[in-house]
Amino acid sequence: MKKGKKLYEGKAKIIYATDDKNLVIQYFKDDATAFNNQKKSTIEGKGVLNNRISEHILSNLSQIGIKNHLVKRLNMREQVIKLVEIIPIEFIVRNVATGSITKRLGIEDGTVLKEPLIEYCLKDDKLGDPLIAEEHILAFDWASKKEIEKVKKMILRINDFMIGMFRGVGIKLIDFKLEFGRLKFNDKDEVILADEISPDTCRLWDSITDKKLDKDRFRKNLGDLIPAYTEVAKRLGILHEQSNVSVVNVTKLSSVKRKRK
Ligand code: UDP
Question: Taking the model in full, what pTM does it have?
Answer without folding.
Answer: 0.93
